[in-house]
Write a structure and sequence with these properties.
The complex is a heterodimer. Chain A has a single domain (2-321), classed as ABC transporter involved in vitamin B12 uptake, BtuC. Chain A is built from 13 helices and four strands. Chain A has helices at residues 2-33, 40-65, 73-86, 88-118, 122-141, 151-158, 166-184, 186-196, 198-203, 208-234, 246-256, 268-287, 293-321; strands at residues 146-147, 160-161, 164-165, 236-237. Chain A has a two-stranded antiparallel sheet with strand order 1-4. In chain A, strands 2-3 form a two-stranded antiparallel sheet. In chain A, α2 crosses α11 (246-256) and α4 runs antiparallel to α10 (208-234). The longest helix of chain A has 32 residues, at 2-33. Chain B has a single domain, classed as ABC transporter involved in vitamin B12 uptake, BtuC (Orthogonal Bundle), CATH 1.10.3470. Chain B has 13 helices and four strands. In chain B, the strands form two sheets. A two-stranded antiparallel sheet of chain B has the order 1-4. In chain B, strands 2-3 form a two-stranded antiparallel sheet. The chains are: A mainly alpha, B mainly alpha. Chain A binds chain B through residues 69, 71, 114, 117-121, 123-125, 127-132, 134-136, 138-139, 142-143, 245, 248, 251-252, 255, 261, 291, 293-301, 303-304, 307-308, 311, and chain B through 63, 108, 112-115, 117-119, 121-130, 132-133, 136-137, 238, 241, 244-245, 248, 254, 284, 286-287, 289-290, 292-294, 296-297, 300-301, 303-304, 307-308.
Chain lengths: 322, 320
């Protein structure tokens, strides 16, 4: 059985160093192939771009850990974005930023209430809400983009504090808080417990409905922050385009990051490296002038491959315990 | 309450349709004409057709989010093949292309044991990319006007899509309720490991199910493409929500194992009635999206209620 021990060794190493290794490989390959890719400016600005997906993925890590999905986040982002951006002239930049985050959080809370009260698999509940939010965004704006007329909001994407670009700073802050909540607070342990076994969690006195609602609210909160950063890059929010396919990117990143779909096992750093991987992959393909439609194919393949590898890994590691 | 829910399961969708019909007949004198009613049913036929496939998928305990992309691929392949191979072969080509997507879905779900939601979500993105690559993002105009007849023609005054909807209802009725395959699908949906132990070839059943979903998507795509005379790589955005809504509203249980084909067909007519009503009062397409979303949430609410009461009844030992 020497072979299986080697497999276990490989699976363990993959779990720990797989993604940073992949990121390194992709950086190396594209740096060799493309001159514009290896410029410091390109590398740094794509690190900032990675924050758009990775901030949104934080909430989703919690969500998938607790054993559910939220596929309404793209539409949620559009609805919160148009509502927030349209209020800039009335309540000012910081106020409308807070409003955007608050609305996304509220949407997440609504999802949580529906999921826990209906007792229906979350992916289908949130699929319904995906269309409700998107339709509300269309109806509110009558399908016209909302431009952000506020210097402060617009400066988030391009600004920097102490030489560090603010999107990276925001991303770091979000990850710091999330890691603390996950590892050091009772709430984090409750999420793990609910995801591992709902019944066991309930029997040991955890308020499962509360934890689930809180998790969906967290998803909304982080999507709100990501929306603010995205909108400051683009300068506008579009009811039809904003957040289109965002849920797909975020779920890809979370799954590629090693969070198990079966729940109970989350990996925040994995999600971060996966976001880097996807962003540099798309950037590299773009700079190589690969037809942009190939990017659909590439990301779809990455998702299915990633989850197959995760399954393989857990089967190998599961064998060791047996 | 249980009796009520059981009654609802059987007749609920009739009540929805009845209320909708009363409402529409007051709203417009045009509604109670044969032509209008036939048109509404024809509009519902696409969702019904793909709904049959989705009913099968949900009964097997799975799910398919890739139907939109399969439709886009079928439409593109069809439009490219028509000038080269003629109409019948082109239709065959389009449907086969869609079915291949389904077989791939089934293979990944059954053999690699990947969650159906993630598989079909990933596949939807891949196939969308492939369809866009084939046409480099453009739409393909079909010049053969004879092709128009399939989606828009009438036989004995009844639009063709209705015949197709009814014909496939009969076929799926036999597949779901009268064939061993149908019973195996239900067995896999209600308890996969029990089905495996009792000798059902679970993998083959799953591959068959996803192939059938994609097949219905391909057929619906043929009809739509024929109506528009355009091959569209990204066709029918949001259609998957409509298909899921009619399946769940029709009474197919999300827990798997229980199909309700009849309900699926009627629910798609109900959704077509909503669309017609919203068109009457000149509301934009976004309100249709909102309405379908709300109807889905309502259907989920009822389904949740049903599951909860069934559980309570089981706990009390009442036979249902």
């Amino acid at each position: 059985m020497k072979n299986s021990r080697a497999l276990v060794w490989g699976a363990n190493r993959w779990e720990r160093y797989g993604l940073p290794f992949l990121v390194a490989v992709i950086l190396l390959v594209f740096s060799l192939l493309s001159v514009p890719f290896r410029s410091t400016y390109n590398l740094a600005s794509n690190l900032s771009f990675a924050s758009l997906v990775s901030i949104g993925s934080i909430g989703m890590v919690f969500c998938i850990m607790s054993g559910d999905f939220d596929i309404s986040i793209g539409s949620m982002s559009a609805l919160a974005g148009v509502l927030g951006a349209s209020m800039v002239t009335r309540i000012g930049g910081p106020g409308s930023i807070l409003l955007t985050i608050a609305i996304a959080t509220l949407c997440g809370f609504v999802n949580g209430v529906f999921v826990t009260k209906l007792r229906i698999p979350a992916f289908i509940t949130t699929l319904g809400m995906q269309f409700v939010y998107r339709a509300l965004a269309y109806i509110y704006t009558t399908n016209t983009p909302v431009y952000i007329k506020d210097e402060f909001w617009l400066s988030i994407g391009s600004g920097s504090v102490l030489g560090i670009p603010s999107p990276i700073l925001i991303m770091g802050l979000c990850f710091g808080v999330a890691v603390y909540v996950l590892r050091k607070t009772p709430f984090g342990r409750h999420v793990v417990a609910v995801g591992t076994s709902k019944n066991a969690a309930m029997l040991s006195g955890i308020n499962v409905d509360f934890v689930k609602t809180a998790v969906f609210t967290l998803v909304g909160f982080f999507v709100g922050i990501a929306t603010v950063v995205t909108a400051s890059y683009l300068g506008s929010v579009n009811p039809g385009m904003t957040g289109q396919g965002y849920e797909f990117q975020v779920i890809t990143v979370v799954v590629l990051g090693g969070t198990a779909l079966t729940g109970g096992n989350g990996n925040l750093f994995g999600a971060f490296f996966a976001a880097l991987f996807i962003t540099y992959l798309q950037n590299g393909l773009g700079l190589m002038q690969v037809n942009s439609y190939w990017q659909y194919v590439a990301t779809g393949l990455v998702l299915i491959l990633a989850i197959s590898i995760n399954r393989l890994k857990s089967t190998i590691l599961g064998q060791r315990e047996a | 309450m249980i009796r009520f829910l059981k009654l609802y399961e059987r007749f609920g969708i009739f009540i929805f349709i009845f209320i909708g019909a009363v409402f529409l007949s007051f709203a417009t004198p045009n509604f109670l004409k044969l032509d209008t009613i036939l048109n509404i049913i024809a509009q519902g036929s696409y969702a019904a057709l793909v709904g049959y496939g989705m009913t099968l998928a949900i009964t097997s305990g799975g799910f398919d989010l890739s139907v939109e992309s399969s439709m886009g691929l079928a439409s593109v392949v069809l439009a490219i093949l028509i000038p080269v191979a003629g109409i019948p072969l082109a239709i065959l080509g389009g449907v086969v292309a869609a079915t291949c997507v389904g077989v791939l879905n089934g293979l990944i779900i059954a053999k690699l044991k990947v969650n159906p939601l993630i598989t079909t979500l990933g596949m939807a993105t891949i196939i969308k990319g492939v369809a866009l690559l084939i046409t480099s993002g453009k739409m393909i105009v079909i010049k053969q006007r004879e092709f128009l007849a399939i989606g828009t023609g009438k036989i004995l005054g009844i639009p063709n899509p209705i015949y197709i909807m009814v014909a496939f209802f009969v076929i799926f009725y036999f597949v779901v309720y009268r064939s061993s395959f149908g019973r195996h699908v239900a067995a896999v949906g209600s308890n996969e490991s029990a089905a495996r132990i009792s000798g059902v070839n679970v993998d083959a059943v799953k591959i068959g199910v996803y192939a059938l979903v994609a097949l219905t998507a391909g057929l619906a795509s043929v009809m739509r493409t024929s109506q528009a005379l355009i091959g569209m790589p990204s066709m029918a955005s949001g259609f998957v929500l409509v298909v899921l809504t009619v399946t769940i509203l029709g009474g197919t249980s999300l827990t798997g194992g229980r199909a309700n084909l009849w309900g699926t067909m009627l629910a798609s007519i109900f959704i077509a009635m909503i669309y017609y009503g919203l068109n009457l009062i000149n509301l934009q397409i976004f309100y249709q999206m909102l309405a379908v979303g709300i109807v889905l949430m309502l259907a989920l609410f009822i389904e949740g209620l049903r599951l909860r009461f069934l559980k309570a009844a089981k706990a009390k030992g009442i036979k249902v």
